Amino acid sequence: MDAAPTAKGSGPGSKASVNKQLMAQSVAMSKKVKQQQEQAKKIDETVFLYDEVYDRMQDAKKAAEAKREDDTQERKPKYIKALLESAETRRLDHLRAEEKMYQREREAEGDEYAGTESFVTQAYKDQIEETRRAEEEEKKREEANRAKAGATGMSHYYKTLLERESAAHNAAVAATTIGPSLPNSSKHGPNLTIQRPPEMEPLSDLQLAKEAALRGQDVEVNDSGEIVDKRELLLPGLNLAAPNTRRIGLPIDKAKAKRSSEEPVVHRAVGAAASQREIRERQARQLERQMEEEERRKKEEQERKEREELERRTAKRNDEVSVMSARERYLARKKARLETLEQLDEAGGQN
Fold first, then answer.
1. 134 pLDDT more than 60
2. How many CA atoms lie within 13 A of 19 on its CB side?
3. Domain-located, residue 260
4. Burial readout 179-214 (b: 16 or more C-beta within 10 A, e: otherwise)
5. Contact 232, 217 (CB under 8 A)
6. How far apart are CA 70 and CA 72, in angstroms?
7. Whether the Cβ atoms of residue 124 and residue 95 lie closer than 8 Å to each other
8. Per-residue confidence at 274, pLDDT binned at 50, 70, 90?
9. Which residues, in sequence order, are CB contacts of 174 under 8 Å at separation 6+?
10. Where is this region: Disordered (predicted)?
11. What is the number of alpha carbons within 13 Å of residue 202 lying toward its C-beta?
12. What average pLDDT does the segment 44-54 reach?
């Protein structure tokens, strides 16, 4: 005997029952999403005000850029002064190198001019005094720079660049804390500091499976009480994950890290950690060598010119001697020929 036919749409697999289940699941999901949004708003009231916060950050960045441009336009020229100081430093280095070269020449001469009288002009005395005064000022300036312990070179450039970028970023973030475009929920304005809620603790897999079952989700759990595929827990929309409590990396001693960050960075490259005095001394020695080479080159050039002049004069003198000897030989031959003719004439007259 056949069973009586059921009414259309009243079975468990009918279209109406499936739509009803989908609607119930959708309502449960939207309630869960709404609950999560309310929890997020309790943590931060401006969590969903993306456009307003972004606009305030952009306005703060533009204000920082405008201020930096104004400072650049109002900045006084500093490179001309540095160039003039460098030129003056090179001039004094050249004077010191000349003085040391003359001193070496006097030491090389020894007692050759010991008994002669020496004269020193007032201009040379003023030049020596200026050199000594410049050395003292340089020494004081270097000591002051060492006392300040200021960084120089590329490390100082990168430090300044990072500080400027950090200041601009902090200004942009600070501009989003309070503003007229953001709704004020209290007299102090909205609080944009994201803090972890105290009740936000990691849930076990069994608890997550129970919550999923309440939402109407079918989650598979193995014998150890672990969820086989946690992707089954995902819902449409925003999925707020639990905080990652795993410790990544080894623990770092905060005191050691702070102490190392406060210590100045000293580069080990050649010349990078050297003081200004050492650099100046090295440049002075190089300048002395260049001046000595230039002096030796001039002396060799002078000796070469004198040698060529002597050779030219000797060659000219040899030419004059050759001409004189040839003339004397010519006159001697002419005289001998005349004597021969006279002898022939005398012999003809006698005949």
1. yes
2. 5
3. no
4. beebeeeeeebbebeeeeeeeeeeeebeebbeebee
5. yes
6. 5
7. no
8. low
9. 60
10. 1-21, 59-78, 103-122, 129-148, 178-198, 255-326
11. 6
12. 79
Instruction: Give per-residue pLDDT as tens, 118-131.
Output: 777 888 888 888 88
Domain tally for the chain? 2
The DSSP secondary-structure symbol of 152 reads -
279 contacts: CB under 8 Å, gap ≥ 6: 271
Across 134-156, average pLDDT: 73
- Residue % of the chain over a pLDDT of 90: 0
Cα(109)–Cα(295) distance, rounded to whole angstroms? 16
Give a three-class secondary structure readout of 155-206.
HHHHHHHHHHHHHHHHHHHHHCCCCCCCCCCCCCCCCCCCCCCCCCCCCCHH
Give this prediction's pTM: 0.30
Look-up of token digits 């280095």 = 93
Residue 325's domain comprises: 275-346
Is residue 290 in some structural domain?
Answer: yes
Task: Flag whether 9 is in a domain.
Answer: no
